[in-house]
Amino acid sequence: MARRFIIANWKMNPTNKEEASALAAEVESQLPESQADREVIVCPPFIYLQSVRSVLNKSKLGSQDISCFEGGAYTGEVSGRQLYNMGVGYCIIGHSERRQFIHETSEEIRAKLRTCLDNKMIPVLCVGGGLKASDDEATIRAMVRKQFNEGLDNSPIDVLLVTYEPTWAIGSGRTPDPDHVSRIAAFLREQQDELHVKEMYILYGGSVNSHNASSFRDIDGFLVGGASLDGHEFAEIVRAFK
Ligand code: PGA
Predict the structure, then answer these.
(1) Residue 63 phi, psi (nearest 5)
(2) Dihedral angle of Cα 30, 33, 34, 38, to the nearest 10 degrees
(3) What residue ranges define each of the domains in the chain, with the CATH number in brackets?
(4) DSSP letter assigned to residue 185
(5) 1 exposed, middle or buried (CB, 10 Å; 0-12, 13-18, 19+)?
(6) Pocket flag, ligand 1, residue 225 (CB < 6 Å)
(7) Is the separation of the CB atoms in 136 and 129 below 8 Å?
(8) pLDDT band for position 206 (50/70/90)?
(9) How far is Cα 78 from Cα 139, in angstroms, rounded to an integer?
(10) Marked catalytic residue, from 77, 104, 165, 211
């Protein structure tokens, strides 16, 4: 059976542990008893991983980032080993907000992806960019291919999730033409063999909500930001995904 992934990216929300646990509990209570082929993954801020983990049952735990260092004297960093030991199964890597605002480099992204895999977690590699809806598709393909290739180091990967997110669609309430998303997804899939990835899934992210979720086709899931902060709305997206 095909696997599907619906990922909640809470970003820097909420502001305290009680609200984080309550949101996780709301998500859990709203999810259908049997989600069949879909895996739901909740990515809270690091400081809430433990409290959210104790609430999750039908869904899995993910992180929004990972250190590129294995371990040692790196103030403020959280290692792959620490995340794995906390029960994290998936790590978002190379989100455009980190590329843009924290100036994460391709070298760091590649190192993060490697340490994620070395610690038996599944990477969710974000690619995209495109500051304007009018950007032409050839430019987007070139950009996405570059980020995709730069993120991988040619050693074999069992399972990889790749999320296509146009920057202009993130948090804006605007989404690209679903046909454009399908074409980019197909383009990314064409490169799977060349990059030694055994199982690859293509997700879309950027202003996904319960109303537009069913319009996207030929993708394997969503990365959801704003709409994942409402448990009911998020569960509706899980249900709406075809
Ligand atoms: P959004 O965020 O759903 O709020 O647009 C998506 C993301 O940044 O992952």
Answers:
(1) -120, 160
(2) 20
(3) 38-240 (3.20.20.70)
(4) H
(5) exposed
(6) yes
(7) no
(8) very high
(9) 35
(10) 165
Q: Please report the atom of ligand 1 found closest to the CA of residue 96.
A: 8
204 alpha carbon – ligand 1 mean position (Å): 10
Length of the chain: 242
Predicted pLDDT of residue 14: 98
What pLDDT, in 10s, does the model give residues 43-102?
999 999 999 999 999 999 999 999 999 999 999 999 999 999 999 999 999 999 999 999
Q: pTM of the full predicted structure?
A: 0.96
Return the axis-axis angle of helices 231-240 and 17-30, rounded to nearest 10°: 40
pLDDT of res. 195:
84
Ligand 1: residue whose CA is nearest its atom 9: 225
Nearest Cα residue to 117 out of 154, 158, 168, 88: 158
The CA distance from 109 to 102, in Å, is: 12
